[in-house]
Amino acid sequence: MNPGTRAAMFGRSFFLQALWSPAGMQNLGLLFALEPALKEIYPQEQERRRAGLRHMGYFNTNPYMSGFVLGVVARLEKSLCGCADPERAEERLDALKKAMGAALAAVGDAAVWGALQPACAAAAVLAATVSWLFDFKFAALACALGYLALFNAPTLWLRWKGLSLGYDLGENLPAALQEWNWRRTVLRIRLAGFLCAAAAPALLLVREAGFVGWRSALAAAAFGAFFALRRAGWSSPAVYASCVTAAFGFRGVLALL
Which value, in Å, is the radius of gyration of the alpha carbons in the chain? Predict the structure, then answer.
């Protein structure tokens, strides 16, 4: 695949969900992104049309992980040229495409929507808090730009790297992806997001209340209770509800004193 074709597929991958439908989900978007590779592989229009019809079936994945599927499909389409048993190869291509789409959808949803997006939002709030503490006039702008930069940098890299790896490795890509410790990466991103989310109110407490005396002990106890409850198996919503209830109860006790 020449660099121009790869760049064209990368750009078209952003429109994967533009032609979404309940019946085929992202099938038309996938075909649109795959078209530059099909033009390179099949110079004859009739062959190219036949290849396009192979991708009219159901397909769905996480849009940020679509580069992996596009690369593998382009590589397998190229291997179909001159294949001794094209029907069997086409069936294998379709099965591998759907299997990878489903697997990468689960990984992408956990990594991008469940970890990266909230972590970037927490980091952006922290940036806005720091900007406000230092009387920066454009704190809201810093928050917005910080979020866009933090979220788009890794996802753009993931799209491009996935396309390159998918084409270079072909059918060996699933084995290579198993070596990526996705679970550990997701946990680290979530931890970073939690630290950013905790740092923002902590900085405000330092600024407004001085964070001395009983306030320091109370904050330390709250953090300790959070980690203790999480290790005990409590869900995050349950811990949050308990903390809110305790905070309102403590405030009521102070009002009576």
Answer: 25
Shared domain for 126 and 226, answered yes or no, is: no
Do 103 and 173 belong together in one domain? Answer: yes
In this structure, what token pair is assigned to residue 86? Answer: 């094209």
Is residue 19 within 8 A of residue 28, CB to CB? The reply is: yes
- 252 shares a domain with 152: no
Q: What is the pLDDT of residues 220-236, one digit of tens each?
A: 566 667 667 766 777 76
**Cα(34)–Cα(56) distance, integer angstroms:** 12
* Dist CA 75 CA 71 (whole Å): 6
3-state percent helix, strand, coil for the chain, nearest multiple of 5: 80, 0, 15
Query: DSSP secondary-structure letter at 172?
Result: G
Expressed in angstroms, the distance from the first to the final Cα of the chain is 75
Residues 100, 127, single domain; the answer is yes
Structural domain boundaries enclosing 170: 3-211
Residue 92 pLDDT greater than 80, yes or no: yes
Per-residue pLDDT tens over the stretch 113-133: 988 998 998 888 888 888 877
User: Concatenated DSSP letters for 55-92?
Assistant: T-S-B---GGGHHHHHHHHHHHHHHHTT-SSHHHHHHH
Rounded mean pLDDT, 189-197: 85
Query: If you write DSSP's letter for every residue of 98-127 in order, what string do you get?
Result: HHHHHHHHHHHIIIIIIIIHHHHHHHHHHH
Q: What element of type H or E holds 96?
A: helix 86-108
The per-residue DSSP string of 140-170 comes to HHHHHHHHHHHHHHHHHHHHHHHHHHHHHHG
